[in-house]
Amino acid sequence: MQVEKVTQYIISWLKEYASNAGVKGFVVGVSGGIDSAVTSTLCAKTGLPTLCLEMPIHQEKNQVNRATRHISFLKDHFKNVSSTLVNLTPVFSSLKEAVPKVDNEEDRFMSLANTRARLRMTSLYYFAGLKNLLVAGTGNKVEDFGVGFYTKYGDGGVDLSPIADLMKSEVYAIASFLEINNEIQEAPPTDGLWGDDRTDEDQLGASYDELEWAMNAQEMGRTTEEFHGRKKEVYKTYLKLNKANKHKMDPIPVCMIPEKLK
Question: Which residue of 74, 136, 141, 174 is most buried, as measured by CB atoms within 10 A?
């Protein structure tokens, strides 16, 4: 990949899209992870107003610290960058108390994790509407189009996706070119939805390098029977996730009424 040219292409694309949409700039949720760090930096480099939101919900301290330091880095280098802290922990806790209890708390863990992402999406759009900004998504290609590793109408609810055609390894290459803080580049990827230190690999059952390989194998029409050992295990994992999350990646199904019934 021609890192410098790809970086400039994305920056130009962002500027042109914002101009055509008649908006002032962008709002980005900054989590302390590599994807949001790269996305927010690309938005900052457009020269357009870029609002970075921190939206902790019972967040691990190291994630919060990385996000805070990255935003400070941006504000030190770009006059067009501003930031706001929105502590969503009380909101999340209130909602958690308001919904009916269940017999087994394990049954609602996933719903609550996704609720965190949807509260953040609501906050991003609040500021987007208030300040005439676009919500910039932070998903990469493997997450958005491979395994569907995002929350529908949560972090999947965005106006535009600057890095969604980049594999995770390509995001890291751009992060290095942009001189993103080393602590972010070296931190294990995590979605930060659980209030602990579990990583994306813990949840997915494979690393991003492995999932990139599997995504390429699927695009080439390879079958599970062609692989053995770890490769076979990873490919089966990838295909299972890809199939299970198609509802996120495909357009919303619409019941089309036959003309003769109208």
Answer: 136
